[in-house]
Amino acid sequence: MRGRTRAFHTRSLRRQAWRMWLLAGILASTAVLVFAYNHEQDDVNSAPALTRWCVNQAQPCSDQVTWSLNGSETNVDTSSGVSVVTTLQTAFASWQGASLSGQSVTGLSITQGPASSATTINATDCVNVIGFADSNASSDFSTGTIAFTAIATAFGTPPTTYTCPSAGTETCPLPSCIVDADIEFNPSDTFSTATTTPSGDFDLQAIATHEAGHLLGMDHSGLASAIMFAFGDAGGVPNRNLSTDDVLGIGTIYPSSNFTSLVGTLNGTVTLSGSGVFAAHVVVTNATSGLAVADGLTNSNGTYSIVVPPGSYHLLALPLAGVYDLSDFAGWACGYEENGPPCCDPTSSGCTANALTPPTNYTGKYN
Fold first, then answer.
1. How many Å apart are CA 304 and CA 334, to the nearest integer?
2. What is the pTM of this model?
3. What would the pLDDT profile of 73-88 be if each residue is shown by its tens digit?
């Protein structure tokens, strides 16, 4: 069995001026394997393997996930809104109820478990805790981090085993399984459940939905319209709903029985001087409206395979540079090199491989 808790910054939500990034909203990046969108990955036998929940289950997995709350949310203002529990339930329900054309795309069953007293990240207790009073906040929260999700995975040639204190030895029947995921909100920030978020506060539902996506196996999206976009800001009425990019992403991880009948696939290769380009942005835009629908990152050989609803589309290939870089998608990068940045912390003794660096000296064109 191999497992780890990945670096917090790879799945944290950071403060940025929201309006500034909206200008770049159609230039996006996400994707893995034969899927689009940015999923968590592990390197299994030198190949990227999508990771997801399938804890001690036979295949096909039952897609069941449980979360628990530490009730120390003194930094959440609920005076003009609903309770913290209701807000978190709504956040998870967004993913469980993700749909296209009125039809469900997932087989997820997400439930709330018993309350937890844990105030620190524990990757080995197999309890998915959501907290607001991180005892290690001074070291856990880098500058500008609003919230983060710490994910532990078991991966390797299946089946792999891992130990949970309450349940003993359990089995992962897949190349990679999420075995523990904890969400922490910055105790130095103030969150709100009001319909219109007060100036200086962060909207709890929007941020909780983003972090719940990480807990389920989603990494960041480069689309400013997506819940999984890596940047957010305080005040106003933020986006609280899943975009098409989010919906397609969660559907490829936990597909409903009819998911494949709701989508098609765009396949191709991005090359530079005759060679495949690693981690190039492939942005899918609606041919009529010009709006971005989905996006992906190319594999190490330059190939991509992006799932989209039926329609007519244009594709745009762009370097992964400028607004964001590969460090914003470290969970995806882990499928290509476990022991090199940005998958691991370069200051860590185990982070010995060369950093993954996609080329940035080319421009994309519509086809």
1. 17
2. 0.89
3. 999 999 999 999 999 9
